[in-house]
Amino acid sequence: MAVTVERAVLDQAEDIVQMHWDAEDWLLAREIDPPARGEVSLADVRDQIELGEWQVALFAGIVVGALRVLQSDPEVWIEDGIPATYVARVMTDRKHASAGLGAQLLRLVDDDARTANTSVVRLECVETNAKLRDYYEQQGFFRVGRRDFEVDWPSVSLMEKSVR
Questions:
Q1: Which residues of 4-14 are buried (b: 16+ CB within 10 A; e: fewer)?
Q2: Quick one: 4-118 is in which CATH superfamily?
Q3: Can you give the residue ranges of every domain in the chain?
Q4: Who wins on pLDDT, 152 or 126?
């Protein structure tokens, strides 16, 4: 499958939000804790696209994956002072999940991190989703901590990998 990855445009915001909702439905059907419904709003995604934070994977002009990357942690994540690239969201259309697309998107993040002169890529993973944690470990990430929330959200594993 020949996939191209490019910066998202505003017309793709609805595709990104729908992919997020589809992923939530898929997780719920398997009784896996998804992120909170509504956490990704159309207005927020549009704002983030305008900031250049979203990239999309396209197959025959159709959005089959999406990736939101920040060049700094969105909050105080780990107080170690190490410059990091933060994967705020990575999603693939469930019809293309087994095609290696997620790994391709994560490799792109590694390349972007090196270009941005950061040595670490970080992400969060819902702690109860052992399969996804295992997947990220296969992609070179390791668990460095845990984050709990005061609101009714599941705890997350803090994961990172070195790209140097």
A1: ebeebeeebbe
A2: Gcn5-related N-acetyltransferase (GNAT) (3.40.630.30)
A3: 4-118
A4: 126
- pTM for this structure? 0.85
Parallel/antiparallel/unpaired status of strands 84-92 and 62-70: antiparallel
What Rg do the C-alpha atoms of the chain give, in angstroms?
15
pLDDT at 37 over 70: no
CB 48 within 8 A of CB 42: no
With tokens 């992609």, the residue in question is 139
Write the DSSP assignment of 57-112 as a string of letters.
Answer: EEETTEEEEEEEEESS-SS---TT---EEEEEEEEE-GGGGGGTHHHHHHHHHHHH
Average pLDDT over the chain, rounded to whole?
Answer: 86
Q: What is the mean pLDDT of residues 39-50?
A: 91
Q: What pLDDT, in 10s, does the model give residues 110-131? A: 998 998 888 899 998 888 888 8
